[in-house]
Design goal:
The complex is a heterotetramer. Chain A is mainly alpha-helical. Chain A has 13 helices and one strand, in the order ααβααααααααααα. The chains are: A mainly alpha, B mainly alpha, C mainly alpha, D mainly alpha.
């Protein structure tokens, strides 16, 4: 695997597909959530409208350099994460820039956007921005733990850190999926998944945004547009990791769409059923329920 | 009370130690090697009739030099300590009996003579510098008793003491150069055993010691007498 | 006989020690030490003693030739002299100290001289 | 030509008598006579010393009275005697100078007493006659009684009396013993008695021995001595401690020869009890002279132990006992003389010394000598002693010695800390007659250090170039800081250029960090003005220690270097404003660790066998580090354990970490990066060496390396966790260092190829980003005048360069691609794939994100959020502090793109030890057996995406203006006070609620409890000394009885 100029248009293509899919799926999930709450919900194209509107707006204020860079980091993180993975198994076209690194690169690049966003929001000078960021970081630090262990378990199981090879090992029927060959690791990872999807019960850190004065008030117009774009790409990219590691990967776009949708739905499903945890409660939850599972998965693999 | 009990318990252990030493002690039937050497050689080597004196002044002369120094030190320190009890010349002279005053006048020269005799003959008869010195000091004591306000010249006492000391050391060093070693008495002719002018430098040294000891004791006595009641 | 003398010496030492340990008055302690010193001197002298012999002085009674058979061990005699003199020096020093202490503190009680401790 | 030794005695006496001839008023002349006599006596002794030292002549017997021993008193002059006489007479001479004023006031009698004292001490050393020994002892007692009175302190009188009481008991026992000994052997000559042995008069010998032992002021029969030390004139206390104690020790040694080997344990027992108890009791002291007194007792105890161990010390006996004795004597004399300059008697009053740097140097020299630090004789002596003890398997004794030495170092360095950090109202005046003795002690200390280095038969530390270079800065203290700084940078760089070819790749990495790394940090030191006294010698000693550590091939060189870097860094750390307690805990932990290393080396040496030049097989007093590999069971795991704990103390592994946060946080701006970025690597180097040579070890079925793995993981977790709760920026970084060192330890303990590679990456990365962050934060702290992060905020626009450095630093540190931290993480994951143990990884997984938390806190609360009113006019940190940061940024990016430049060589080097799992460095991609990583590609991809989006955003928002600080809405109000809207304090409160139980200060409490326990023990022990002279007599008698009973039992 090496660089090839053709990879650049292919990468754009991947991003384009994922963005569209992300918009649609996001709206769909939101609608499902609304229906579960006996509300009508948003139209399926709502995100397009939002994004187009926001890209069209021009702002005349900024809070400073880092404020500027926040959304840039954010979106770079999402796009980069997507592009450092082979999205479609067996497809050269959609293997993107996965020659640059393996699973570990993907795992760590997740934090790139988080870091930038945290910094950018911080410079707005608004205390709620910092409160939200710290809450998110605290929760994620514990939520990531079972996931990291699950990844380690899977890597040990397949004796490789290459995503492609992990997916390859799961080919040949559903029973070869990690879900069935290493169910404990998957259980741990799926709990972690809940924690990282910014949905109830683990979404208290976006509370400062909900009272509408957090980052979204400070980030408006094109800043917000970038962030919304990222909110379409990033969850998908993240779920793609899960899918590749635990659910046999995807040999084609439709397969990917379906798997990602159901995984996303899982978090939405849990989200509508449970009330919100405070941060320390989430930390304890992960510590008590998810971490032991992760430890177990490492031990038994 | 506890203190006494502890003291008794401790001393019981020491008693035990001493008792063991005591029961284990058997007097020698023969002189041991050192004593035998002294018994056999003193007369011939050093020419001193009094073997104890020979040991004190010559064989173990370094001890004796130390001994003299002990007294010197004690006198110096007593002087140092008492110096601050600046004596009070204006105090009343306590009443002293006529008998004592007269007796003193009569006795002091004789005591001094006896003292000199004792240390000059130290190598021949029992006695010696220390004994003689003490006798001389007793004369000073008597004088002080007779006249408690009497003032002795510290300058003189200390000059005697120091001169005697320096000469003593000088004789010792002379032994290094003229005879077999430090404090060797054979820098002077040994003479005939039993005579006054015999045993080399021993009589000289013992006389110096006598003077020195006498001066030291006197100095202490004088210091004490000049000190007021604390 | 020698044993009796020696035992007396040891006893004097113990008595002196006991006195020094139990009396709190400086002067009494000094006296106790002189008792103990005396005890030591007695012990020293007794060690040199040999039954039936005479003092180590060569005179008409003891000729130089048979001194070896006739005299007692002269060394302890020499030692005891030194010990006595040293004892005197130390006693004088202690007395001077006692005077100075009394002058300073108006007490001779050893238990009250505890400005320095720990 | 030398002069008969008897002239020494005769001169002393003659001069004493001569003063009596003088008029009471002519004290000046008497004083000249006194000084002249003492100078003559010193010269004669020195002549003998030179003779014996130069020719190696045999000891010479000196007869008196023209009669051979045993019939007359004989003296003996040999090397030891000559050395002691020189010491005693010089001490007397300088004591006379020091006490000049008092002596002149008290008159000729006082001078005579002093002369007799010195003479008697000489006599005690020279004489070979037991009774003569007694006479000299009594002379010393009486002279002491006199000299005590020279004090201005009225309490001295009662102290002197207490001394006289006890000495009366002593002399009674001694006399009884002597006379019975004479009766049993028929001689008073010590050699004659020794020939016959003490079997026939064991009880009498016991009395003699115990009486002489009591003159050494053994615990607990020493209350009187302490009172004298406390109240006497310091000039005399110096003589009492230096000369009298030394002479008494020598006398004890002579007497012990009569008893023979069976009595040696008595000496050892008394010695070790005194050593440990003396040091413990010194711990709670606040009076300087009393503390020195306790220390003297302890030191005498140590020398007594050496005397008691002479059966195994063999030919090294004089070297060891002499080294200990001379260091103690010189140091103690110097310190007592110094105390004469200090007006107050509290330890803190020594702060007045700071007015005279020379006196501070003398002070520190004294303390280093007492603590047995290099390059002083005590260091060499301790090395030999410990090795010989280990060789004989006397490990309990060895342990107690090291324990006592640690306690001693503890209170001495605490005291030094007071002197450097506290304030004193007193001033110091330096009359020449008082300064000369101190300078003499100072010079003597260094001269002895040189002499012992020469005698040691190993490399003389005072001839080692790096150390000389460091010490040369002592002579340059007059120069301005910028000049010294330039020299320091030049020296480090030149050293690197000269030597880099001599090293293998692993050591080369360390060398680069130790020299060039240090030089970069020194760039920041250009910000200091003035002369910066004390900084350069300390810093350069530390760097000298570090480069010597890399050079060292044998255990001695290694340990010496280790101690040097410890001392240097201690002085550096102590320079911080509030660093006094932290520097103390640093030095105590470091020395504790060093002692464990020493013990480990000693035990190892005992079983490493080398060929002596003659071809005979003998245990090695020092050995090649590499031969640790040849150690066999059952010694090997123990050695491993000791060394590992020692090194882990330096890397602040959890449990041994409590010194680090304060030490690193309170240090000066440019010192923090030195001790954190550079110094910590020395510990890692030690661990590298240890693991490379010894590999896996297990003890009672516990795999020690596995244990280290756990410790590393726990350290990483807890270090990071503690870091997130800090409000102080530098403390945060310090705790983060603990965590980072945990990572490195973990990597090493993985014992696989990639684990080591990862540890090495941490070595490099940690150096770069921790130095950078410390400089950046230090610059901010310098400008804002605080280190509390919640008092900062919004500094990004005012200090943009510092911000960039911090930003790059935290990206690198958190392991987020594309910067170099990611490489470490990638190697880590590959490494753990190979590991046998999996559970500890969990902790590492957790600590990664936690690191992210504190990094965010660091950058947010300082540079983002709300700018405070009082900071509105701040400027960027000084150029000298910013410049190295920018260099680091460049290095970080360089390393991030081309990690292979350095790592591939190391990778190849590690393959020698652990061939499996080497990486493949072909092309730009780094490949392991599990995955791959292409730093260049990552950098390009990320940069392209980033710039693309950024460019677009810039374009569309080209007209955006920066809004005012308070142009935000906060709870429906427009805030106007930055304090209320800067979210910074208690930043991670929920985390504390959830995980706070992990960071309860258990370890601090544990060590605090230990310290309290020691202090309490010391305090209880002090109550023995209730000041009552009679009780002291009881102590003496009890001491005798206890020794008697235990001797019966043996």
């Amino acid at each position: 695997m090496d660089f090839d100029w053709m990879k650049i248009p292919y990468a754009f293509l991947t991003v384009f597909i994922v963005v569209n899919y992300g918009f649609l799926m996001g709206a769909l999930i939101q609608k499902i959530g609304a229906r579960a709450g006996r509300r009508h919900g948003i139209p399926i194209w709502q995100y397009y409208l939002d994004v187009i509107k926001n890209y069209g707006l021009r702002t005349s204020i900024t809070h400073g350099v880092m404020f500027y860079l926040g959304p840039v980091f954010r979106l770079s993180g999402g796009v980069g994460l997507l592009l450092f993975m082979p999205v479609i198994y067996g497809s050269y076209m959609f293997s993107n820039f996965s020659f640059a690194g393996d699973l570990i690169l993907a795992l760590y690049f997740v934090f790139f956007g988080t870091l930038g966003m945290a910094l950018g929001a911080g410079e707005s000078g608004h205390p709620h921005a910092a409160i939200g960021v710290t809450r998110g970081l605290q929760q994620v630090s514990m939520a990531e733990l079972p996931f990291a262990m699950a990844v380690f378990s899977v890597a040990l199981q397949y004796q490789t850190l290459s995503i492609t090879e992990i997916v390859a090992a799961q080919q040949g029927g559903m029973m070869n999926w990690t879900l069935f060959t290493n169910p404990i690791a998957v259980a741990a990872a799926m709990l972690a998944f809940l924690g990282s999807m910014m949905r109830p019960p683990f979404d208290v850190f976006i509370a400062p945004q909900e009272i509408p004065i957090g980052p979204p008030t400070e980030y408006h117009s094109s800043y917000l547009a970038l962030m919304q774009t990222n909110r379409a790409i990033f969850p998908v990219a993240k779920i793609v990791i899960y899918m590749n590691l635990f659910f046999g990967g995807a040999g084609s776009w439709p397969e990917l769409f379906v798997k990602v949708f159901f995984l996303y739905l899982f978090s939405a499903f849990v989200g509508v059923c449970f009330p919100r945890f405070r941060v320390e409660q989430s930390i304890r939850f992960f510590l008590v329920w998810a971490v032991p599972l992760g430890v177990l998965s490492i031990m038994v693999v | 009370m506890v203190k006494r009990l502890v003291a008794l318990a401790l001393l019981a252990v020491f008693g035990l130690v001493f008792a063991t030493l005591l029961t284990g002690y058997a007097p020698d039937a023969e002189l041991n090697q050192t004593a035998r050497y002294y018994a056999e050689r003193t007369a011939a080597d050093l020419g001193a009739a009094n073997i104890v004196t020979a040991i004190i002044v010559t064989y173990r002369g370094l001890d004796t030099l130390g001994e003299v120094t002990v007294l010197f030190l004690a006198a110096a320190i007593v002087g140092l300590v008492l110096a601050e009890g600046a004596h009070d010349r204006s105090r009343m002279r306590p009443p002293v009996g006529e008998l004592l005053t007269t007796g003193t006048r009569f006795l002091v020269p004789m005591i001094l003579l006896l003292g000199a005799y004792v240390f000059v003959n130290g190598h021949l008869t029992p006695g010696g510098g220390f004994q003689g010195g003490a006798i001389i000091a007793s004369a000073v004591l008597l004088m002080l008793l007779a006249d408690p306000l009497r003032h002795f010249s510290h300058r003189l006492i200390s000059a005697i003491e120091s001169l005697a000391g320096i000469l003593y050391v000088a004789i010792g060093i002379a032994g290094l150069f003229l005879a077999g070693g430090f404090l060797d008495n054979r820098i002077l002719p040994l003479g005939n055993l039993g005579e006054l002018a015999s045993a080399g430098a021993i009589p000289l040294i013992y006389s110096l010691i006598g003077l020195k000891v006498g001066a030291e004791f006197s100095s202490m006595l004088a210091s004490l007498s000049e000190t007021e009641e604390p | 006989m020698v044993h009796v003398v020696m035992a007396t010496g040891f006893l004097l030492i113990l008595i002196g020690f006991y006195g020094a340990l139990t009396h709190r008055n400086l002067l009494r302690m000094i006296v106790a030490f002189t008792v103990a010193d005396t005890g030591v001197n007695v012990v020293i002298v007794s060690v040199g003693h040999m039954r039936g012999r005479s003092a180590p002085i060569l005179d008409r009674a003891v000729a130089a030739a048979d001194a070896v058979q006739r005299i007692i061990d002269p060394v302890p005699q020499a030692l005891v002299l030194t010990a006595i003199v040293i004892g005197v020096g130390v006693t004088a020093l202690m007395l001077a100290y006692a005077w100075r202490i009394y002058r300073q503190h108006r007490t001779l009680d050893i238990a009250r001289l505890t400005a320095l401790k720990g | 030509m030398v002069i008969n030794a008897l002239h020494i005695l005769a001169t002393g006496l003659g001069a004493a008598f001569l003063t009596g001839l003088l008029d009471e008023k002519r004290n000046g002349l008497a004083f000249m006579i006194t000084l002249g006599a003492l100078a003559f006596m010193s010269a004669v002794s020195a002549g003998w010393l030179v003779l014996f030292a130069a020719t190696g002549a045999h000891p010479m017997d000196i007869q008196t009275a023209g009669t051979p021993p045993p019939f007359a008193i004989a003296l003996r002059m040999g090397l030891a005697e000559a050395a002691l006489l020189t010491l005693i007479n010089l001490a007397g001479l300088f004591a006379a100078m020091h006490m000049g004023e008092t002596l002149l006031a008290r008159g000729r009698r006082a001078m005579a007493v002093l002369l007799v004292m010195v003479m008697a001490l000489c006599g005690l050393v020279l004489t070979r006659d037991l009774f003569n020994l007694f006479v000299f002892f009594e002379l010393i007692v009486i002279a002491t009684g006199g000299l005590v009175l020279l004090s201005d302190d009225e309490r001295a009188v009662s102290a002197g009396f207490k001394y006289l009481i006890v000495s009366q008991f002593i002399s009674v026992l001694l006399l009884v013993g002597i006379v019975f000994g004479y009766h049993a052997t028929g001689t008073l000559n010590i050699d004659g008695m020794a020939e016959q042995g003490s079997g026939a008069f064991a009880l009498a010998f016991f009395l003699i021995l115990i009486a002489v032992a009591a003159e050494l002021k053994p615990f607990p029969a020493n209350g009187w001595a302490l009172d004298i030390y406390e109240s006497a004139h310091p000039g005399f206390a110096a003589l009492f401690s230096a000369a009298a104690a030394s002479a008494a020790l020598f006398a004890f040694d002579k007497v012990l020869a009569i008893g023979g080997a069976e009595w040696l344990p008595v000496a050892t027992g008394i010695g070790i009890v005194s050593f440990v108890a003396g040091n413990l009791l010194a711990l709670p002291q606040t009076n300087d002279r009393r503390l020195l007194g306790y220390s003297s007792i302890a030191q005498s105890g140590l020398i007594l132990v050496a005397i008691g161990q002479q059966d195994i010390l063999g030919e090294h006996y004089l070297f060891i006992a002499g080294g200990l004795l001379l260091s103690h004597a010189v140091a103690k004399a110097g310190l007592y003389w110094l105390s004469g300059f200090v007006a107050g008697r509290e330890l803190t009053d020594w702060a007045a010394l700071r007015q005279r740097p020379l006196l501070v140097l003398a002070f520190v020299t004294g303390i280093a000598m007492l603590s047995g630090l290099p390059p002083f004789p005590g260091f060499y002596a301790k090395w030999e002693l410990v090795h010989l003890l280990a060789n004989e398997g006397r490990l309990a004794l060895l342990g107690w010695i090291l324990f006592g030495a640690l306690v001693e170092a503890g209170y001495l360095f605490r005291w030094f800390g007071y002197a450097i950090k506290r304030e004193s109202a007193h001033t110091i005046d330096c009359p020449p007659d008082r300064v000369i003795p101190v300078i003499a002690a100072l010079l003597a200390g260094w001269a002895l250090g040189f002499a012992w280095g020469e005698l040691s038969g190993r490399s003389n530390l005072l001839l080692v170039l790096p150390l000389l270079f460091a010490l040369a800065f002592l002579l340059l203290e007059w120069a301005p800081a910028w000049l010294k700084n330039t020299l320091a940078i030049g020296g480090l760089s030149l050293y690197f250029l000269q030597t880099w070819q001599d090293y293998d790749p692993l050591r080369l990495i360390f060398l680069v960090i130790f020299t060039l790394g240090g030089a970069i940090i020194f760039l920041a030191s250009f910000h200091a003005h003035g002369r910066r006294i004390g900084f350069y010698p300390s810093a350069m000693t530390m760097f000298a220690g570090m480069v010597l550590l890399l050079q060292a091939t044998d255990s001695f060189g290694f340990f010496a270097a280790w101690e040097l870097l410890t001392i240097g860094s201690y002085f550096l750390i102590l320079r911080g404003k509030e660093s006094e307690p932290h520097a103390l805990s640093y030095i105590v932990f470091s020395l504790g660790g060093a002692f464990l290393i020493l013990a480990g080396f000693a035990i190892a040496a005992a079983s490493v066998v080398t060929l002596a030049p003659s071809g005979a097989v003998s245990p090695a007093p020092t050995f090649e580090i590499a031969s640790l590999a040849t150690l066999a069971q059952p010694v090997a795991p123990w050695v491993f354990l000791l060394l590992a704990i020692g090194f882990m103390t330096k890397t602040a592994a959890i449990g041994l970490h409590i010194w680090l946060p304060g030490a690193h946080a309170e240090a000066e701006t440019d010192v923090s990066p030195m001790v954190s970025g550079v110094l910590l690597k020395a510990g890692l180097y030690g661990l590298f060496v240890l693991l490379m040579s010894m590999g896996r070890q297990s003890l009672y079925g516990v795999d020690l390396v596995n244990l280290m793995l756990w410790i590393g993981a726990i350290t990483a977790l807890l270090g990071n966790l503690m870091a997130i709760f800090q409000e102080d920026a530098k403390r945060l970084l310090a705790y983060s260092s603990i965590g980072q060192m945990g990572y490195a330890l973990f990597g090493l303990a993985l014992m696989n190829h990639l684990g080591w590679l990862m540890a090495l990456m941490f070595v490099i990365n940690h150096y770069v980003y921790k130095s950078m962050l410390f400089l950046s934060v230090g610059g901010v702290a310098k400008r804002t005048g605080t280190r509390a992060m919640y008092q900062m905020g919004g500094l990004i626009t005012l200090m943009p360069l510092s911000f960039i450095a911090t930003l790059v630093g935290i990206i690198a540190m958190s392991g987020v691609p594309p910067l170099s931290g990611f490489g470490g993480r990638w190697i880590f994951y590959n490494a753990i794939m190979d590991a046998d143990t999996r559970l500890p990884m969990v902790l590492i997984f957790l600590s990664g994100p936690i690191a992210f938390l504190y990094l965010f806190r660091l950058i947010h609360t300082i540079f983002l959020g709300q700018l405070k009113d009082e900071h509105r006019r701040l400027k960027e940190a000084p150029l000298s502090i910013v410049l190295p940061q920018m260099i680091y940024v460049a290095i970080l990016i360089g390393v991030a793109i081309f990690p292979g430049l350095i790592l591939r060589r190391v990778d190849a080097y590690i393959s020698q030890f652990l061939p499996d799992g080497a990486l493949n460095w072909e092309g730009l991609t780094i490949t392991s057996q599990y995955g791959w990583w292409n730093p260049v590609a990552i950098m390009i991809v990320v940069a392209c995406i980033f710039l693309l989006i950024f460019g677009w955003l810039l374009f569309v928002n080209r007209k955006a203006q920066k809004v005012k600080q308070f142009n935000i809405v906060f709870s429906a109000e427009r805030p106007y006070r930055p304090e209320t809207t800067h979210f910074a304090w208690n930043f991670f409160a929920p985390y504390k609620k959830a995980m706070g139980f992990l960071v309860q200060p258990f370890v601090t409490r544990f060590w605090g409890a230990i310290t309290d326990l020691l202090h309490t023990a010391g305090d209880l022990g002090r109550r023995l000394y209730n000041g009552n002279g009679q009780i002291y007599a009881f102590h003496f008698l009890i001491f005798v009885v206890v020794v008697f009973v235990s001797q019966l039992g043996m």
